């Protein structure tokens, strides 16, 4: 790379203006560091900028899925619903950018394509798609674990004459499906949230399902003012209690320590029903062993299948909607009215597992020898998760080491934050950390606090670089793998495992140890003068 556009090297260059990048910029500036954010999109908000499909909303409750770093912010901001819808989350991201004066540090419409470590300068040379360049001591990748949409190469898709939308890259102009026949492929969280909303608009909706998924009710509703007032009376305490939870949220629900296998049939039913009535991810916490013991898991799975059979009038459709895999192995979906949508006469379910998609035509697709016609297509086919965005970047560490070579067999890093051979680089909410298993804002705040404390430590000691050692990294990868080994998370084809992307190495990417254990390990490494790192 040649000379920098800005001759003054930055302290910190941050990639991505989602919640991770926004908080990183705020915190770096608070610490007196010269920092900027480069963002490929035309606005801030990351996930909530791109995922504007009908029905998009967060699956962690709004009072929890929000920043806790500033008491004034959390007191003043008001969520309208139990689970905030996408437009409100985007407004929140914009509010954060404005409130803390972050805009002048964010360059939009700037896709970083190259980042090379420069040994002589002990820093990073970063280049955007259009050739602009920057130099920075530290590079922070806040590009998100779910930011590269997965667009499968269906045979003949280019033949299809109508518009094709991806839920993770939804247009900014309103999309009106009124009077149209719509086809949708994919029944993960995005498909499941959008299907009831698209069904309410479209003349006909055909859902192409490869794997049925478990959906627990969201019971979404306007936020109860009494609940809001109670949380805000001690928001700091609420945040602390949530940080002590395995997933960084859900402290309002009692922790069950009982096995599903030791209770009576009646008690089993009552406890699962009570959690079903509450709604949300807490369903899997109804018993202590639902995610550890296959027999316990099967009882919860069968409970949900009974709910599906009760909700869906056509028994054949109900059977198709009943998932077979372990419940909770793929991410549980939290939504309103999903199963009931299939009772509407204009909503059709097509099983593309038994009748795979053969090819697209100008007016639809052919599966199992049968043509299904539609005017518009929605791909709710998910993301090249956790590693997809980094692996598309020309990212090179010491000695020109390419991330594509380093991670050819799957991601490896230390503490989920730093990569051996890539000095002064930090990754927020990426693989090897609790990331997507946590309320991701808790994960982000923890990572940013750790990174900025690390930079302060280095500066105080006059150190120019920090690099994870190969040995510490190997031990960490081993720990991440072992933590997943004891669970049911390896029993299905999930995006956590990379199984949704053909050819992607199968490796369980997030850390399943739980947030408190993870945070403690990160704190211990820091407290022991950055154990597992080389400081120079
Ligand atoms: P997901 O959860 O990865 O769901 C993608 C869906 O698309 C899922 O039903 C897939 O079926 C289906 N899919 C993917 N590729 C294909 C092909 N080639 N053919 C047919 N069907 C396919 O993505 P989401 O966007 O819904 O959610 C991602 C996360 O965002 C979510 O977990 C929350 O954390 C927020 P499969 O199950 O692979 O058979």
Polypeptide structure, described:
The radius of gyration is 23 Å and the shape is globular. 48% of the residues are buried. The protein contains 16 helices and 20 strands. With 536 residues, it is α/β, with parallel strands linked by helices. The model has no long low-confidence stretch (mean pLDDT 97). The structure holds ligand NA7. Ligand NA7 binds next to helix 5.
Poorly predicted runs of 5 or more residues? none
Q: What distance separates the N and C termini?
A: 24 Å
Number of helices: 16
Largest sheet: 8 strands, mixed
Question: What is the number of beta strands?
Answer: 20
Shape: globular
Overall structural class, as computed from helix and strand content, comes to alpha/beta
Helix content: 25-40%
Q: Mean pLDDT, rounded to whole units? A: 97
> Which range does the strand content fall in?
15-25%
In this entry the ligands are: ligand NA7
Kindly provide the radius of gyration, computed on alpha-carbon positions and rounded to a whole number of angstroms.
23 Å
Secondary structure layout plus pairing:
Elements: E1 10-15, H1 19-30, E2 35-38, H2 47-50, H3 71-76, H4 86-99, E3 106-107, E4 112-118, E5 123-128, E6 133-141, E7 164-166, E8 181-185, H5 189-201, E9 204-209, E10 215-217, H6 225-233, H7 235-243, H8 265-278, H9 294-311, H10 315-321, E11 333-335, H11 338-341, E12 347-351, E13 357-361, E14 364-367, E15 370-373, E16 376-379, H12 388-391, E17 394-396, H13 403-406, E18 425-427, H14 440-460, E19 466-468, H15 470-485, H16 515-527, E20 533-535
Parallel strand pairs: 1-2, 1-6, 2-3, 4-17, 6-18, 7-16, 8-9, 8-16, 9-12, 10-11
Antiparallel strand pairs: 4-5, 5-6, 13-14, 14-15, 19-20
Helix pairs in contact: 1-14, 9-10, 14-16
This protein binds ligand NA7.
Ligand NA7 binds at residues 146, 152, 167-168, 185-191, 210-211, 331, 352, 380-383, 436, 493, 495, 500.
